[in-house]
């Protein structure tokens, strides 16, 4: 097995504010293999952006601080390298794409000039060669008539087309890793789907790894190889997209999946709110909202990640000694569904039961 391209290890990122220390990322570890798409998912405020921006130290420091941990990129610890070294990696070997394409484009320059600049920043090529490559990139990301549009200004493109331009710019230096933070959230649904398909195609073509941040599990199903489920600064569950969708094993993951709109339903939020990251609850961060919480969940440290299947890890006491994980995984639920109508989970909804009990 080759080393992962990116290995985030025991990362602790905090914000030292007047009101106290916000522990936004609190001991997060995950790997990204070459050519792999890893989705980081979780509710708003769970630390997804802070974790991903810390990879290239994009968070404001101060008030931000990487208090502990390592970010190994191709074996080099990016938390320890010089700012100069980091600048050459940013936009070069690691490219970021953000939610709002507007913020990545300069309104006073034509898009082509901006892509040419991005290319020439990281590659020693002539202006003409860079311009040809810019046209090629615009074409590859699906801008129609790229040759004619290269000298257009950002405002002459629609939101979806602008995001394509930004993606072309991110690809300019042929990065090994693309970090995309909710790149489709601001776009309408059809455009979202097109951009996701585009990223999937480009990944294969450019042989990139992608870290994709989203709070939308529908998007995860669409593009992820592996998934990191975050909650309140912690990794709650991690595994392949099949592990997480077919055998969700943390009550939080299950709750997120239950929020996915089913037939004729709209998105439902999980009950309760995120904990205060300045004073997180003792024990499992999710216990105040968890229907299965026991005294063990309410005391001590947040549970360790435990391996439940190869490559599938869960931070929940139910996978430790003395507990029956079937209660969470639902093996017991489907059993009892067949016999007593599935009264194990608290949210028994009689209408759901009559329509087959499919709560997803
Ligand atoms: N500059 C800052 N100063 C203080 N706290 C911050 C700062 N930036 C982020 N935080 C806090 O860090 C926590 C994690 O935020 P983050 O943006 O990573 O969440 P997220 O999972 O990306 O959410 P979203 O889905 O809304 O983008 C939040 O509680 C947020 O308020
Ligand atoms: Ni975010």
Question: Gist?
Answer:
With 360 residues, the chain is an alpha/beta fold. It has 15 helices and twelve strands. Helix 4 packs across helix 5 (127-140), helix 4 (111-122) runs parallel beside helix 7 (159-171) and helix 5 packs across helix 7.
Describe what you observe in this structure.
- With 360 residues, the chain is α/β, with parallel strands linked by helices.
- It has two domains: 1-93 and 176-268, 3-Layer(aba) Sandwich (Rossmann fold), CATH 3.40.50.300; 104-174, no CATH class.
- The chain contains 15 helices and twelve strands.
- The strands form two sheets. It has an eight-stranded mixed β-sheet with strand order 6-7-8-3-9-10-12-11, with helices on both faces. It has a four-stranded antiparallel β-sheet with strand order 2-1-4-5, with helices on one face.
- β7 (177-181), α8 and β8 (209-214) form a beta-alpha-beta unit.
- The structure holds adenosine-5'-triphosphate and nickel (II) ion.
- Nickel (II) ion is lined by residues 48-49, 181, 213.
- Nickel (II) ion binds next to α1.
Helical fraction equals 25-40%
Q: What's the number of extended β-strand segments?
A: 12
Number of domains: 2
**Poorly predicted tracts of residues:** 332-360
User: What is the general shape?
Assistant: globular
Rg for CA atoms:
22 Å
Question: Which fold name is given in CATH as the topology of the largest domain?
Answer: Rossmann fold
**Strand count, sense and closure of the main sheet?**
8 strands, mixed
Bound molecules: adenosine-5'-triphosphate, nickel (II) ion
Let me know the average pLDDT: 88
């Amino acid at each position: 097995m080759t080393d992962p391209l990116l290995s985030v290890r025991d990362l602790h990122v905090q914000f030292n504010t007047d009101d106290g220390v916000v522990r936004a990322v609190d001991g997060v570890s995950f790997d990204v293999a070459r050519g792999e798409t890893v989705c980081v998912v979780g509710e708003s405020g769970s630390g997804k952006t802070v974790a991903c921006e810390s990879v290239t130290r994009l968070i404001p420091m101060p008030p931000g601080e990487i208090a502990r941990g390592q970010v190994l990129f191709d074996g080099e610890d990016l938390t320890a390298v010089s700012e100069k070294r980091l600048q050459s990696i940013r936009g070069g070997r690691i490219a970021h794409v953000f939610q709002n394409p507007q913020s990545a484009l300069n309104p006073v320059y034509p898009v082509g000039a901006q892509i040419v600049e991005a290319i020439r920043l990281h590659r020693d090529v002539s202006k003409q060669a860079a311009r040809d490559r810019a046209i090629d990139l615009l074409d590859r990301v699906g801008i129609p008539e790229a040759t004619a549009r290269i000298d257009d200004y950002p405002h002459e493109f629609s939101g979806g087309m602008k995001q394509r331009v930004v993606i072309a710019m991110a690809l300019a230096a042929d990065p090994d890793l693309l970090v995309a933070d909710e790149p489709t959230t601001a776009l309408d649904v059809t455009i979202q789907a097109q951009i996701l398909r585009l990223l999937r195609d480009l990944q294969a073509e450019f042989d990139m790894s992608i870290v994709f941040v989203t709070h939308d599990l529908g998007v995860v199903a669409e593009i992820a190889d592996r998934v990191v489920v975050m909650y309140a600064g912690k990794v709650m569950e991690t595994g392949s997209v099949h592990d997480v969708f077919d055998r969700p094993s943390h009550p939080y993951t299950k709750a997120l999946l239950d929020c996915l709109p089913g037939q004729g339903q709209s998105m439902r939020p999980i009950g309760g709110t995120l904990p205060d990251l300045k004073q997180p609850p003792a024990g499992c961060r999710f216990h105040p909202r968890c229907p299965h919480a026991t005294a063990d969940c309410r005391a001590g440290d947040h549970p360790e990640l435990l391996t439940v299947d190869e490559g599938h890890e869960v931070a929940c006491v139910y996978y430790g000694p003395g507990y029956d994980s079937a209660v969470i995984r639902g093996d017991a639920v489907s059993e009892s569904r067949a016999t007593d109508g599935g009264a194990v989970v608290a949210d028994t909804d009689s209408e759901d039961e009559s329509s087959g009990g499919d709560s997803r």
